[in-house]
Specification:
Four copies of one chain form a homotetramer.
Chain A: E1 5-6, E2 11-16, E3 22-28, H1 38-48, E4 64-66, E5 70-71, E6 74-75, E7 80-85, H2 107-114, H3 130-145, E8 150-158, E9 161-162, H4 181-197, E10 203-210, H5 224-233, E11 238-243, H6 254-257, E12 261-262, E13 265-266, E14 274-275, E15 278-279, E16 284-290, E17 300-303, E18 309-312, H7 326-342
Helix pairs in contact in A: 1-3, 1-7, 3-7, 5-7
């Protein structure tokens, strides 16, 4: 069943495999009249791209091309087609994986579902698919910027290390998108240890949105938080999502968790900017739990396509963690959810 | 924007307010030929209904009526309309709340979004809306039972108390749907303390599904886990969702979190039955963090509709926790997600 | 597959069978703040209801009840549930049809699709289903009236008789909704002849909408005319749809068919108010071809459920033509299409 | 609002403007395991391509590239991205049209809707957009061929000339896709007259589908005929759609129009293969009325973007009629509708 589209009014459809000729996205429903150039998108793609020290050495340039929907530098209201051609494709690295199921990956589930799979670098299930999401998110960002909405994602935990302080300016200064410089330094040391050990790690990404008006979200199934949860959980390595106080709220008392209302607004934001599925006007705050990358060089038990036991040690170009590359992806998903809701009119009739 | 429908093939649309004449659901896409009687639905409604000691004393009978889609005791493939008339409606209890915004509720966000709100018992944002979900879930259960799929929800944490053991048979023996009798007894004591204190609490609900075939879920946005996350987060009091190891996975190493594959299947289930968004054939395991019920008699700071500060102490019939009533609701949402995916054919062409 | 919903923003879901307990519709996405009373809906239902001389003698009162979405006389933005209980249900009339397939009806296709069918009066495939559409259309009409849009349907051909003149005031003065009094009188004589002959007839319904702004319709698949065509063709007896000059345009020259543009607007309206799928601001004009009612007392050849040949003469309460009852139904479908598009914001960004 | 997607299970999204860098389509939901090569698609594209004598002299090669969804020559179940780069783009031809609204085109409605338009060759509203539909239809054809379904479109009327005979083999032998060789010859003469006169013409296209099983179509809004009507009316120049006897049925008696049922099946096919919105198993027959191409060199009255009157004579490369190029497009739309319904399982539960 078709599952590669997201959004109702600001609607995207992504396509492409890790080692196919190209990948891309069609954005349908973007309003006309928004200035848009490839550089607007390229900037965001650079933030998730491999080639940095932390991430895999695949030197993919990730040049985006705009194939439709923009005329004389401005969106026209028709579908915007973005494409990124895959240039550094070395499928040869993967031929030995054609007949083995990597633990923690979708190799076996894809084969069970489709009866066939593209085993080159994970095919459609590769993290590379998220480049298309980031490209679409960049377009959503342009639209939202014009409405005063700003979205920022950052790392709040990595390999069990947590941030202790929050400095917004620090986020783009370190390779972890971490708002705490001290924590970032510790994370860097942790990466080296894990690389030496042939192992990998996960972490927690937080996304916050400023400037959203009250009133976004549609009861009862398309609540703002429901859509955010679905959006973030659709990102490959994400295994948990929470809004505001999240899982901590489960252990709080009502008198602790309720955000008091004052004539100046809410006195706290345990709600994470969402009440009854509708935005309150406070910052929207969501967090995503990211599992460790399953590709490790440490030996693992698995089976091959004939069902025989195999000991597998995955070589090749792999990251130690989906963080930091997943950070701009989480940001993109929140941008896309908000763009979708922001497109809807305030439907109140004048009386 | 329309937001009261859920699902693509097994599609439900709910309607109704807490203190309106009735509430209900239309189930469109349920296969024909399934025996269905009101009692099949009534049984599940009883599990979430008020009137038990733990929950609010509203003595609503919640009698479901089947108005369409069933002929001679069997579904016909046409829409099934279920309705529950509200009989014990005392809106008078709420008139004093018509001009005040209750903290932690949707009173203010609804008014900001719609410019008008039904203040009787929360109107559409009331937990009562979930009766329609449970009714629809009961129909999904009938369909899934014929395919060998079984879904069960239970409480794993309540007011900071956690279960230590798991006994499936115990779940329906205590009012908390708790699989640990000792923990259930402690929870019961906690309820009394909170009621005396005029406060409320939350908890964590786990849902597990047995018997699902591998192959459910549609990459990349309609992944099984993405749909589960959106479904559970759409339930009123839920602020977090996790699959399998969930947030714990964020602090694990790849070598710990990966589920090894053996000739006999997966050796563990940190994935919670989902890899790359597609079911593995293992039990599907999801958890939802439930916030404390915001209606408490303990005094709170808030404002009225004129923006003036008010100290509010909420009287009337209110539960101490959304647990246990939310347990069958979480179960229903997972049933509905699975019914939707189970309706889709295995689309593989013979070669 | 679920197929009983229509519209994207102003979204309706209908349910109910001819001889079940009730039928109804859920309207999701209707803006808040619109005054709405049962009489607003009842008025439209009266226009399609049986009991008039022309139509079948089933004396169904068709009383609509509003079960949700309206508070203190005004829509709240939440789903509006409308129900009409079936009171004059004499299924006994149909028991002899349980084992025979009526020509021109859906008896056999429903059974082939679903493996089961509700044979009482056509079940879900009965024209009675359209009462729910008319009820929903009445709500759309209230919304559109506030935006200055007015929709009117009328009969332009009946049993081969065509209207020669157009008098808008005449439409509601004769039982055919015919804008030509002379033609209406001829139609009345034709009905008597056909009733005597035990036969039935069809005709053509035209729907025109005044006051629509330019800009409605979404290229390339959700064009305004594409949605109108799908909407009208979804009405049971409709076998053809055309916009503006329609089929006549197929035999015209470009120089004849093009509507010249002048500083005062379009000089003609062969386009029927739609160019490139987008409304022009001129009247929107659509026509639907209605086939003769298949239930006739004249003997017909058919087969029973065992495949044996049967000569069938259908007795009971049946209309001679779907006209006039189908006229308000076509009107409702156009109302629903326009409400859906009118809900969408003009998305142009200010530059 | 997003409007460039079509279908629910076999879902396509098209993009691209007449004179942009490229146009294309993403096909999401195509089953895995279907052999697919560029030539399978190229063959259908050739049938609609310009360059033949009848059509405009734009020598576009229309080479399709498959960018995703196919691995080792076989579909994988993931989205199939097809792209056609525009090579023969002479926008200069259109600069004089940047400030004038061509009658019968979408120039003015696009500008009214979006506030901006791509005036190069009609931009998104150009007939060139349909190349993407034909490419997607070719993939649907591959899928349907495996299920025994065959779809064929042909011209039954052109400039007021009608076919008198039907010879299936003749269809691909003449440039009109006309099943009557004598009529085709007359059409050819008519084209020359119109070209000399600087005028254009329309016609009627019929599409028939063989081999469809009974049971396709979803009551009550997604009826097979409703979807066909919406699909065909979404094609640029189409102004009318009919199924089976269509508009002629409006003047028939019930006793004439009903298709008698015999032990060997239906004795006639006035229904066009659809009863109550569900396929009967007979050939599905639909017709589309095609308006004359609005671009004519004969002088026309119009206005420019400043609202001033202009006499316009359109030069450049234009067809005399949308026929024959629209014939493969109508065929593609029916292929896409049928593929969508054929993907759905027969949902009957065994009892």
């Amino acid at each position: 069943m078709a599952g590669s589209s997201f959004g109702r009014l600001f609607r995207i459809t992504t396509w492409g495999e890790s080692h196919g000729p190209a990948l891309g996205v069609v954005i349908d429903g973007c309003p006309p009249g928004i200035p848009l150039a490839p550089e607007d998108i390229q900037r965001d793609l650079e933030r998730r791209r491999p080639g940095k020290r932390l991430t895999s050495p695949r030197g993919e340039p990730d040049r985006v091309e705009i194939l439709s929907g923009v005329f004389q530098g401005v969106t026209t209201g028709t579908p915007i087609s973005l494409v990124i051609f895959n240039r550094d494709v070395r499928s040869g690295d993967y031929t030995e994986l054609a007949e083995v199921y990597r633990p923690g990956h979708g190799d076996r589930t894809y084969e069970q579902k489709y009866g066939v799979r593209d085993w080159r670098g994970g095919g459609r299930s590769s993290g590379r698919e998220t480049a298309a999401r980031v490209a679409a998110g960049a377009v959503a960002r342009k639209f939202l910027a014009g409405r005063g909405v700003e979205v920022k994602a950052y790392t709040v935990a990595f390999a069990g290390l947590h941030v202790d302080s929050f400095n917004r300016d620090e986020i783009d200064r370190n390779p972890f998108f971490c708002p705490d410089a001290t924590a970032a330094a510790a994370m860097e040391r942790r990466v080296e240890e894990l690389r030496d050990a042939g192992d990998s790690c996960g972490g927690v990404v937080e996304v916050s949105a400023r400037g959203c008006p009250a009133g976004l979200g549609e009861p009862v199934f398309d609540k703002l938080d429901a859509r955010l949860a679905g959006a973030l959980m659709s990102v490959g390595a994400v295994k948990g999502v929470e809004i505001g106080a999240g899982f901590a709220a489960a252990a709080m008392l009502g008198s602790e968790n309720n955000d008091p209302l004052t004539p100046d607004g809410y006195a706290s934001n345990n709600a994470g900017g969402v009440l009854a599925g509708i935005s309150t006007g406070m910052d929207i705050v969501a967090r995503a739990a990211v599992k460790p990358i399953p590709s490790i060089s440490k030996p693992q038990q698995t089976v091959n396509t004939r069902g025989e036991p195999v000991t597998l040690s995955i070589k090749g170009r792999h990251d130690v963690s989906a963080i930091p590359r997943i950070v701009p992806v989480c940001e993109a998903m929140v941008l896309l959810v908000l763009a979708d809701f922001m497109l809807h009119p305030a439907p109140v009739e004048k009386r």
